[in-house]
Amino acid sequence: RHQVVVIGSGFGGLWATEALRKAPVDVVMISGTSHHLFQPLLYQVATGVLSEGEVAPATREVLKKQRNATVLLGRVTEIDIAAKMVTSVSPLGTTVTPYDTLIVAAGAGQSYFGNDQFSEFAPGMKSIDDALELRGRIFGCFELAELCEDPQEQEEWLTFVVVGAGPTGVEMAGQISELAHRTLRRDFRRIDTTKAKIILLDAAPAVLGAFGDKLSAAARDQLQKIGVDVELNAKVVGVDNTGVDIVDADGNERRIPCRCKVWAAGVSASPLGKQLAEQSGGEVDRAGRVQVNEDLTLPGHPEIFVVGDMMALNNLPGVAQVAMQGGKYAAGQIVRRLRGALAEVGADGIL
């Protein structure tokens, strides 16, 4: 039977696999984690609203009734386009899996724009581990502020800086504000959590810039109403244990003293994208995403689909809906090919 290999258990990979449940194919999903992460809700895990199990069901549990699907745990290290082989590694060794059709949905990680040292003081939010780390830091700041005797230092513990005014940063800043101004306001005796400062920073001139001027303005107004201080055209140039260094648009340098920082600015696609581009003669954009054809295939390789955060096409945003529709569309293309039909670019897809 036709062998389909899916790399990644995120939205793109899972939706592609499920869409092939009735197809005359065998599907092998290879993922570095044993769970499907509902990444858009990570900010709720980080702020204690949800437990990690509620946003990360086991992939095997999700696919247990799909008889033509097999799940393999492993981190994919190499894709050999010429040999049609995928190499993955696990604690037990190396596995090589052949494919007839490949769907690459390995996602993206956090980007610090060449300043990876910032990650020690400003964790990103791309995994369950990241969210749990942030939960400890956020709640820990309130606890330490309660213990602190120095008013100035107490203010630092009650200042929360979120870097990046995209969807993740906006959601995170809003949820921290909800936590400070509502959820915890009666839980402490020595501090007033409603006086906590939540600051959302971005070097760009708008909040949610990819969503258009009207929605961007509405989002900024809503953030300010719930107590979030939005500071735009502010480039972060330094992050350490006690604060954030910023350069404004006019070149003025300043520092925000704070103990809790969240990095929600920028993503970097899986390095597998670079491998695909080098072997196919294709291109990647600044974020490492692969330029694909309008049917989501790798140029010159109709047997390889790239979906989700690894895909660069028509400036589509890196959100769950695009990944889900891309995965489903790729599965539909595979089924149509197997039926001997010509693939119709855009049919049943995201275009």
What is the strand arrangement across the widest sheet? 3-2-1-7-19-18
The level of helicity is 25-40%
Distance between the termini: 30 Å
Number of strands: 20
Low-pLDDT stretches: 342-351
Strand content: 25-35%
H-E order: EHEHHHEEEEEEHHEHEHEEEEEEHEEEEH
Mean pLDDT: 93
Principal-axis shape equals elongated
Tally of individual helices = 10
Q: What structural category arises from helix and sheet content?
A: alpha/beta
Major sheet description: 6 strands, mixed
Radius of gyration: 22 Å
Give a quick precis of the structure.
By secondary structure, this protein is of the alpha/beta class.
What can you tell me about this protein's structure?
The protein is an alpha/beta fold and 351 residues long. The protein contains ten helices and 20 strands. The chain has helices at 11-19, 42-46, 52-55, 59-63, 128-147, 151-157, 167-183, 213-225, 272-280, 320-338; strands spanning 2-7, 25-31, 69-73, 75-80, 85-90, 93-98, 101-104, 108-110, 159-163, 197-201, 228-231, 234-240, 243-248, 253-257, 260-263, 267-269, 290-291, 297-298, 301-306, 311-312. The protein has a six-stranded mixed sheet with strand order 3-2-1-7-19-18. It has a four-stranded parallel sheet with strand order 11-10-9-15. Helix 1 runs parallel beside helix 10 and helix 5 (128-147) runs antiparallel to helix 6 (151-157). The protein is elongated, with a radius of gyration of 22 Å. The model is unreliable at 342-351 (pLDDT under 50).
